[in-house]
Amino acid sequence: MVDKNSDKHEKKSVLTLGYREINIDPGRMMALCDGIFGMVMTLLIFGIELPELQFQTAVNFETFMINIIPTIGRYATCFILVGAF
Questions:
Q1: What is the reported pLDDT for 18?
Q2: Domain coordinates in residue numbering, the chain
Q3: Which of 4, 23, 56, 70 could form a disulfide with 12 if both were Cys (CB 3.0 to 4.6 A apart)?
């Protein structure tokens, strides 16, 4: 006797590589993608360098912050774009 309900629980994605078809569980594929994106985002954060400056006055600090805004914007944009996928 064949159980027809057993096919409903076995949802697999088929990945075709050339002439081979590989059955992959969608949950495992999503976990792999999440892990890869997590590593990319971590490496993106590790790429941020902290300046080795000593600020003598508040004006020096304000000037530095104004000059670093484009860099922070680029990192934020990359982080949001990677996180969206």
A1: 73
A2: 1-47, 52-85
A3: 23
- Closest-CA residue to 79 (of 42, 50, 25): 42
Query: Which two tokens mark 69?
Result: 């805004």
Q: What is the pLDDT of residues 36-76, one digit of tens each?
A: 888 888 888 887 777 777 778 888 888 888 888 888 888 88
The answer, as to whether pTM is greater than 0.85, is no
Answer for the pair 23, 14: CB distance below 8 angstroms, yes or no.
yes
DSSP, collapsed to helix, strand or coil, labels residue 8 as: helix
Q: Tokens 């490496």 label which residue? A: 43
45 Cβ contact list (under 8 Å, min separation 6): 79
**Do residues 64 and 55 touch, judged by C-beta distance below 8 A?**
yes
How many CB atoms are located within 10 Å of the residue 54 CB?
A: 6
